[in-house]
Amino acid sequence: MAVTLGALVGAVLLSTFTVMPASAAPAGALRGPTDPISVASVGASPNFGYVKEGASVTRTIQLQNDGVDSWSIDPAPLSALSFPFALDSTTLVAGQEVMPGQIRSITVSYTAPAAGAASNRPISLTVADFEMPGSSLFTLTFEGHSLETDRSYFEVTTAAGAGAVDFGTVKLGETAKVSMKVLVRGIDPMKFADGQISVLNGAGMPVPGVTVSQSSFGAGGATYRPGQTATFELSFTPTTAGTEVGTLTVSGTAMSGDPEAKDFIATLSLRAVAVTPATPTPTPTPTPTPTTTPPPTTGPTAPGGNSGSAGTSGGSFGSGSGSGSGTGAGRTGSLANTGAEQETGLGLGALAVFGCGVAMILVRRFTRSRG
Predict the structure, then answer these.
(1) Which three-class secondary structure state does DSSP give residue 340?
(2) Most buried residue, 15, 25, 28, 69, by CB count within 10 Å?
(3) What's the confidence (pLDDT) of residue 341?
(4) Is 96 exposed, middle or buried (0-12, 13-18, 19+ CB in 10 A)?
């Protein structure tokens, strides 16, 4: 029986129909007549990895025709996906030609069941060649592992352990600081960078006056293993009085090796109150009380002097007469206050007594001499 060259070539081609996932194809491999059908998975992996119990993760797997011939894939087997997996959508259409270089997508979600469960759902898709008769199978294996906690996560608190940031009341021109700490949990190391810290208000704008004054992350970022602690500091320097509220957000990148792993995000509420410093009231300078010199007080007018008394009759051998009259001009109050008038009166009285004494002595001597 004769075998033609064309039949021989066709037999060879039919025997070499393959479906190659991207992971099996060498990078930069040259597609030729021996690989007419090839399917490369260029999107997310169907392996969802480790997910916290009850959490849902959605991934889109992309299938690219990187072969020589056009092909089509019937999406019907995808409907066999069941909990914890679910088919959300696909652009695959039964019988529709997918030319070399074109891409079709499959979007699947995974909801982690009870902690510790491992889920595995292989789905085989039929790939039909559009250039010549023949088909092959391409298998996608959907996997997921449920954990009690996130595989990669962390906790953010103040250095004192508070679950919120409160700067308290800060005067304009002053600065308040709050130290923060990040404790890595889970089973994967996590990487942090300064650019992964933000403090935004309800409008999505940075809270005025709040900055990251220092951190252990560095501009290029730093990786911390589970159980290790990273630190950073927030400062608040207000420029206007009022109350500021916002949300502190810190994100960390899981270093699990999974390119589809998303950043874990932690948030804390933030509050700060700015007030205007009170202006001190100056102590008033006391006004000196003027000293008033009272006017001189005029004393009452002294009454006039008494009229002189009649002279004492002389003795038997002498006579004497005396008369006296006197008028006393009124003394001023100043003289009355100084006592000058009293002193003058005392002196005259003493003189009068002295004179009487002398007169009596003379009378006695005269009487003795006559006797």
Answers:
(1) helix
(2) 69
(3) 47
(4) middle
